[in-house]
Design goal:
single chain; two-stranded antiparallel ribbon; alpha+beta; disulfide bond; 13 strands; glycoprotein; Fibrinogen_a/b/g_C_1; extracellular matrix structural constituent; secreted; about 325 residues; Gamma Fibrinogen, Chain A, domain 1; 9-stranded antiparallel beta sheet; binds calcium ion; globular
């Protein structure tokens, strides 16, 4: 009908932001559309607030070690199995990856589909990351705060199946980005915890491949790199990247991502070398990120939350 056609014309003009009250005769339509837009924006804000408070509740629930007590003699090889057996709140659990000589206490992140075994967390700089080979091997820090899970554990985890790593990053303006790599694998200590990974997806840029500037791949890529610490130099640089950049990492010559670097509290920093918590393709070498979380999950992880459950949890409180 003519009415419908007129509405569609107004809608197109509205979408292109070219509509004017006087000339197009869309005044009524425009007001209605603006009203609908405002309503949707308010609904979105409400949902974001609800999500935020749900996240806060989860964080508070994490402050006790209930999970670890619940799973004493563990049959779970990772947090994905913990999740599948019904433990769906984030917190501390015991797992035993195949090949691991003993059970390992880990932080399971049950958000974003659940089942993530967290291998690294930086949030406020309380933990020093300029550590020795043996400390990176065994892991260090506080599982409820900042920590490194340990290269042996990461090796056992990533070689018992096909794992993805998800890297969640946040800057000091509250912007969040992520990078995810399939087939993330860390070799054993004999092979100096050599790193390999597959395809990238994400919003933070593919720092690990270093492919954002082709001529730099040779020295910027972390593919196939061995792990280095200040006391064990396995990089491709004539000097010692770990010593200069003050953290253990899979350095090349030296890096385009250095998530174990120095924690600078203000983001932008100046130093004699790019030693901050760096993810080059997003904020460059001279910006040190506020938050870095690295977590592992098998690619075939099944999330249990049904669409109905999601709908219910997103419903704004009345
Ligand atoms: Ca070297």
């Amino acid at each position: 009908s003519t009415g419908t056609r007129h509405r569609i014309t107004c809608l197109i003009l509205y979408c292109h932001d070219t509509v004017t009250f006087a000339s197009d005769g869309c005044g009524g339509e425009l007001a209605q559309l603006r009203q609908q837009e405002q309503l949707l924006k308010r609904q979105l804000q409400k949902q974001e607030l609800l999500l935020r408070s749900l996240q806060l509740m989860t964080q508070q629930g994490n402050s006790n070690d209930a999970g670890a007590d619940q799973v004493q003699d563990t049959q779970h090889a990772d947090c994905s199995q913990v999740y599948s057996s019904g433990f769906q709140s984030s917190g501390l659990y015991r797992i035993r990856p195949s090949g691991s000589p003993s059970a390992v206490k880990v932080y399971c992140d049950m958000t974003e589909g659940g089942g993530w075994t967290v291998l690294q967390r930086r949030v406020n700089g309380t933990e020093a990351f300029n550590r020795s080979w043996i400390e990176y091997k065994d892991g260090f820090g506080d599982l409820n705060a900042e920590f490194w899970l340990g290269n042996d554990n990461v090796h056992f985890l990533t070689t018992q199946g096909n794992y993805s790593v998800k890297i969640n990053l946040e800057d000091f303006d509250g912007h969040q980005r992520y990078a995810e790599y399939k087939n993330f694998q860390v070799a054993n200590e004999k092979e100096h915890y050599r790193l390999s990974f597959g395809d990238y997806v994400g919003t933070a840029g593919d720092a690990l491949t270093g492919s954002y500037q082709v001529p730099e791949v040779k020295w910027a890529s972390h593919q196939g790199m061995k792990f280095s610490t200040y006391d064990q130099d396995n990089d491709n640089y004539k000097g010692n990247c770990a010593q200069e950049d003050k953290g253990g990492w899979w350095f090349n010559k030296c890096h385009s991502a250095n998530l174990n670097g120095v924690y600078y509290p203000n983001g932008h920093y100046s130093a004699s070398t790019d030693d901050g918590v760096v993810w080059y393709p997003w904020r460059g070498w001279w910006y040190s990120l506020k938050t870095s979380i690295m977590k592992l999950r098998p690619v075939d992880h099944k999330t249990h939350l049904t669409n109905d459950q999601v709908a219910v949890s997103l419903k704004p409180p009345s």
